[in-house]
Amino acid sequence: MARKRTRWVVGASIIAASLALSGVAVATGPTGSVVSEVIGAGSMPNGAGFAATPGTNIVVADFTLGPNSSTGWHTHPGKTIVTVKTGTFTVYHARDCAPSVYGPGDAFVELPSTVHVGRNETGSTVELGVVFFGVPIGGSPRVDQPQPGGCAIT
Length: 154
Hints:
By secondary structure, the chain is an alpha+beta fold. The protein is built from one helix and eleven strands. It has a single domain, classed as Sandwich (Jelly Rolls).
């Protein structure tokens, strides 16, 4: 009986690992030069005058994208506010694959689970300031996603 259970556990573990690895294989990661630096992360207690989700962090980061770089297709676990410090930043969403172009001084919001890719399609550097809300404590503000069908942007 113990031997049968051991086989079942080993078999289930192999299947789970295969599924996990197959999900990673289709995800798209950054290309070119994409550097991020977390400036800080922290949680807020309830009643702090701001709607915060218990068990999550707010993460503040700087991003620098070199010429012709891409973030890869991804989502975020919570709302995300992006400000463009320098350069021209282009965002494509899976729903329509249409470009939204932002320049210095522009800001925009990405909603949770919105599949998108950010690109520097120029020969200059792009600098962004980003605030991620609803990031699970110990988790990532980014969730890799596969490239959507019908959209050739990478």
